Amino acid sequence: MDPVEALRRIAFLLEWRDASPYRVRAFHTAADAVRALPAGPVDAARARALHGIGPVTAEVIAQASAGAVPAYLARLEEEAGPRARAGWGLVAAGRGDCHLHSDWSDGGSPIEVMAEAAAALGHRWAVLTDHSPRLTVAHGLDPDRLRLQLAAVAAVNARRGAGGLRLLTGIECDILADGSLDQEEELLARLDVVVASVHSGLRSEPGPMTARLVAAVRNPHVDVLGHCTGRIVTGRGRPQSRFDAREVFAACAGSGTAVEINCRPERRDPPDDLLAMAAEAGCLFAVDTDAHAPEQLHWQSTGYARAAKAGLGADRLVTTWPLGRLLDWTGGPPPDRGR
Predict the structure, then answer these.
(1) Which of 17, 151, 181, 311 is surrounded by the most beta carbons within 10 Å?
(2) At what angle do helices 300-309 and 82-93 cross, to 10 degrees?
(3) Which helix (H) or strand (E) holds 167?
(4) Ordered structural domains, the chain, with CATH
């Protein structure tokens, strides 16, 4: 077994068990680090010399590099049972990612680097969703800069040619206090995918927050509701926003707007109870990394673990859809979007 696959599968299974996000992230970090090792057997001591490798991950690497299924992985799979193994199939079914950032806003890498990283994972498409102008701390894109970015994405696709990954145009657009969107309507209409998220006033009263979210998800330009509660579960943390989740998810289901399953370890948004509520409401979902660096694209597998635990199949997950179906959905009228 390949050490990278073994480490990623362990991260998936730890997410399945609701392990600490720090623990899950440690296995993703180790999977990134192990790429520096040559092919063939590697002993644990040599693996430990790499930054980010601890005693448990080193032993996994040593066993996998020798062609064995690591004992830790085998134990986790046995304890998790067949549902978890079926859930790993969702990872294999993934076709793309609706939410990633570049150095045009608060990401750390150029557009082409992010596209190459997504292609290396086997994605058929990925959506560039840098921030909108109101989020000045993230160097959000005003209309002029967004127009320039549309041309830059077209140039990246032209250089990559046909037959590989298609980079789609998009934005993570701030939902303003009245539920309107922080970008010119003409530009929103030109984008392939619009992710709408709240980044301000996260501690608003439930009534205004509910109205704000409902207005946004009913906007015909909005395709995905991003990290709906705004919570942070690591470090000092941040409490989740308060709103009528049943009303918001009913609006998502009615308009065909997908609810994002945000894969960032510090977010895990929505929480499990709201994820179950959105599933019961009949919502579509986008399993998104919200990646700000190439290595963060690997976090998607842990989002698929949460989707599998919630009983969601690939048909409800727009990130498993082929490109043509995705674009039919984002470009179609609301009655067609939930199909």
Answers:
(1) 181
(2) 130
(3) strand 166-174
(4) 3-80 (1.10.150.110), 89-337 (3.20.20.140)
Distance (Å, whole) CA 312 – CA 86:
11
Contact, 20 vs 82, CB < 8 A? no
Contacts (Cβ under 8 Å, ≥6 apart) of 229: 240, 241, 269, 270, 271, 274
Q: What is the C-alpha to C-alpha distance for residues 17 and 207, in angstroms, rounded to an integer?
A: 34
**Can you tell me whether residue 289 is helix, strand or coil?**
coil
pTM for the full model?
0.92
CA atoms of 198 and 227, how far apart (whole Å) = 8
Nearest-angstrom CA–CA distance, 95 and 324: 11
What's the CA gap between 276 and 310, in Å, rounded?
6
Question: Please, what are the averages of pLDDT over each run of 10 residues along the chain (339 residues)?
Answer: 92 92 91 86 91 94 96 95 88 97 97 96 97 96 98 96 91 98 97 98 98 98 98 94 98 98 96 98 98 94 94 97 97 57
Task: Report whether 327 contacts 192 (CB < 8 A).
Answer: yes
Helix (H, G, I), strand (E, B) or coil at 227: coil
User: What is the distance between the alpha carbons of residues 195 and 291, in angstroms, rounded to a whole number?
Assistant: 14
How far apart are the C-alpha atoms of 294 and 108, rounded to whole Å? 9
- Cα separation, 242 vs 310, whole angstroms: 22
